[in-house]
Amino acid sequence: MEVFKIRSLYLSNNPLLVISEKICNLNHLESIVLENTKITELPKCMGSLPNLNWINISGTQLTEFPAEILNAPKLETIHARGLKLKNYNEIKDICEKKNITFYYD
Predict the structure, then answer these.
(1) What is the average pLDDT across 93-99?
(2) Does the pTM exceed 0.90?
């Protein structure tokens, strides 16, 4: 039985360092905002979130974006401004193929 029906998770400007894989139990999650946190990685299992459509990771400490997350079936938009992603070209190409808007500068 699922207890949580959280649709949006707004954690911006938090001293957050880690996102637990337990986030992948939030099957109703549609959007997550992690802007200006200190996280350095995202759980790959986020790609299995059936309703996830919007992610904001701008201003985080991420250096690589897990390509597995792009498998989230409803994912439409990723905000990743101010990041230096090592796998930027790979992520950009996959986003273009899947028609996912990828904001990056």
Answers:
(1) 97
(2) yes
